[in-house]
Write a structure and sequence with these properties.
Mean pLDDT of chain A: 95
Strand content of chain A: under 5%
Number of helices of chain A: 13
Distance between the termini of chain A: 46 Å
Oligomer: homodimer
Shape of chain A: globular
Low-confidence stretches of chain A: none
């Protein structure tokens, strides 16, 4: 089965003709979300149904480099390529409101993150997968010895930027964050461990500092921020932590997926990635939207 | 809804009359499992339907002491009271074959344990519950700093008793272990977090050394084994670890359940406990059965 990452419409496995028709019809109806997805992932050029079908077929093709490279290439194209996600552009210079928006929406992301990752442990018997996820939960959520977890660094950043953590807990996430979380919940509850892993850990590529070989044109954020006297310490600590660790972390997950993928339905893994990447795209918009709310206050 | 812990037959909530009829009918048909459950949990005396209904009603009554005491009292009665589980009797002196049986069957128990506990993290947003379960996974399965996890101490015990760990991994668990695991899987997949917690962490009461006030007549094992020159070091380490920590650990889980139970269906929590305790009863038989297989070799 193939799935439209935007609206979750289902198609028979490999039926890219019907999928292309779906996209073309919605583009003709000027459906903003589908148009945006096509622009960011397929092409900005107008195509007829034959060209579009062939473009989608190409899009799913993993003959070169296997699933690991496929996920990295797709992620880079959608978020950090020539035409990057607007949130990545925002992160090329320090902006207090953007980081405040980040602190709020990302708290809710991390609350879902720990749920998605812990269910992976319960859906497999593989020791390396379970250990990877336990380590991930420690570094993101619980802490390791004296090392604070990512969620604590996030909350401390929020505090230095002027927001009490109780205020963050009590905030309602924005609609795009809610949409993304509900999709990650759906993936978490209905998919097998390898699909959940592809869906969740691919997202850590956003902060991976070693993606230049894969065509990344932008860093996650301007690394000059880490040395700038204008940037608060807690922001440096929060961003620096991910900058140092997420590249090995995200590659390790993709290596695990590549190791076991042949025992599973490959298209299912690709769909889980695409569904999640689309949710992430919308979620990054929520970070910006929240930042704009602070900017306009 | 009330549930027969033996065969999972369902009854309307509080309909103890029909439940009593179910037990009486199966006892009259000499169904060994139902008879055994009645003997260990209700009474060894023959009762008519009125007496039996009232006994079941009494059995579910948590008016005195609430859910924490109810679980402890039920557990003690079934496993460590006047009429203890035969496995507890076996553990009153050191037996190499029994510990070998324990090492094999318990490996499969712990593989399921980590799955049941990790899903609890994914089914709640409560920070204290999630942290408790992460800590539990570290001590049972992953390790904390230099402290080896319980599963590693188990495997090292198996090795000192003459069984390679690869041999343990490759062994098929006995039918009673399989039955128990499949029931824990069912609870894990279908129940809410508090029911899974009641089902799983109540079982740690087996090794709790502070149950004398609750009527326990037997220790989990003869504590003299910890000082005996006849007992291998790895057995002492394995048993000693649980002996030192399980009492606070199991009480902490029951305190969490007591804290939040009023937001949930109480009978559902009781049923989850009863279903799991019955599975545990059968699983302890598998430990003995495996021990006997070594004894007869």
């Amino acid at each position: 089965m193939a799935v439209c990452p935007v609206c979750n419409a289902k198609f028979d496995s490999g039926d890219y003709y019907t999928m292309a028709t779906h996209f073309i019809n919605l583009a003709e109806d000027s459906d903003a979300y589908h148009v945006q997805w096509i622009n960011r992932n397929i092409s900005r050029k107008k195509m007829d149904i034959t060209q579009f079908t062939s473009a989608i077929e190409n899009f799913y093709n993993i003959a070169h480099g296997g699933i690991k490279e496929w996920i990295i290439n797709k992620f880079v194209e959608q978020f950090r390529g020539e035409n990057p996600h607007p949130f990545i552009l925002k992160m090329q210079s320090y902006s207090k409101p953007v980081m405040m928006g980040y602190a709020i929406e990302h708290y809710f992301f991390l609350k879902q993150w720990v749920k998605s990752c812990s269910i992976i442990i319960s859906k497999t018997d593989l020791d390396d997968v379970q250990r990877y996820e336990i380590e991930n939960i420690l570094s993101e959520y619980y802490g390791r010895g004296r090392k604070k977890p990512h969620i604590e660094l996030l909350l401390e950043m929020g505090e230095e930027l002027g927001m009490d953590r109780v205020q963050i807990f009590a905030t309602e996430p924005l609609d795009s964050t809610k949409f993304a979380i509900s999709r990650w919940k759906e993936i978490t509850n209905s998919c097998n461990w390898i699909c959940i892993m592809a869906a969740m850990h691919s997202l850590e590529l956003v902060a991976n500092s070693k993606l230049n070989n894969y065509g990344a044109k932008y860093d996650y954020f301007n690394p000059g921020m880490l040395d700038s006297p204008l940037v608060p310490d807690s922001v440096k600590k929060f961003l620096g932590e991910g900058y140092k660790s997420d590249y090995s972390h995200s590659f390790r997950a993709l290596d695990i997926i590549a190791k076991y993928c042949h025992d599973y339905n490959m298209e299912g893994i690709q769909d889980a990635y695409l569904m999640s990447a689309y949710a992430f795209d919308r979620y990054l918009e929520a970070r910006m939207e929240r930042g704009e709310m602070f900017e306009n206050q």
